Amino acid sequence: MSGDNYGVRDAVIECADQYLSPGDLNTLVDHMWERTEKAPDEYRGRNWLFAIESIARQIKDPALFEKARRRSWGELSVAAFLDIAQVHFDAGDPQSALEWLQKAKATDTFKQYERDELMLKILEALGDHEQAGIQAELMFDRGRTRESLDRLLAIVGKENKPAIIEEACNAISSQDNFSSGDTEFLLDVGCLEDAEEHVLRFSDQMNGRLYTSLLPIATTLAKRKRRLAASMVYRALLESILARGVSKYYTHGVRYLRKLDKLAGKIDDWHGYLSHAAYMAQLKEDHGRKRSFWSRYEA
Questions:
Q1: Is residue 278 domain-shared with residue 255, that is, in the same domain?
Q2: Quick check: is 34 in a domain?
Q3: Residue 272 pLDDT > 60, yes or no?
Q4: Do 164 and 183 fall into the same domain?
Q5: Is it the case that residue 206 has pLDDT exceeding 70?
Q6: Domain limits at 290?
Q7: Which among 16, 54, 89, 134 would be 20 to 30 A from 144, CA to CA?
Q8: Which pLDDT does position 10 carry in this prediction?
Q9: Could you tell me if 160 and 266 lie in one domain?
Q10: Cβ of 210: how many Cβ atoms within 10 Å?
């Protein structure tokens, strides 16, 4: 058991409760404590302590888990508070879980998402409907998504949906920076004008390298006939590719430029933004030497 070059020991320990009796698990833990004492260095000793933590999670023993974590690291961290709280919760003791989770300072944002998720589960388990609503609202404000909205509405009632969405739109409109997450949320809940306004207002802030979040936004805006806003997003995506000058990405850039060509034919008012013709002129001035790109575009 001391050697584990292929991770077999860890895989076996992670499901030990499925094939060992409670008595055998206690014997295994005792053996691991002995191995910890005899470990030739801190690193290998800590590996055994990690294994004890795994067993403690499986048998839902918060005291054992805490003992192993303290032995591993000494002073407990925010991550430790969260992990110990989770074991208490899994053991059916939400009140102790709450007390452990509250040991983390509110100003410390480490593992904030995981802490928020567990806090909401704890409050619901305790039957504290009011605080659960406050927690769900806090989580929604931290990350506005359809999922976080639905979770909030499940607690406060679906009749509050229009007011919550309106308040979220107002909060987003008062921001000083572009947020792809908020833009996606606005599109998801049907606030097309707000999404369009957000994109246009911060068009110079969009980072085209973040294509996994920007491309769905551009696609949705185009489908919803918000063509000017869609064009601004496609421009950011295109400019990022050309700025990098890596030819293997030019196929994507060509696709974005052709999207821009198609959208431009249906835009009558550019509202002060560069028209497609002016944009193309600027693009060729800045990247005209990238012959590989232009040859693909013109093919």
A1: yes
A2: no
A3: yes
A4: no
A5: yes
A6: 176-299
A7: 89
A8: 77
A9: no
A10: 13
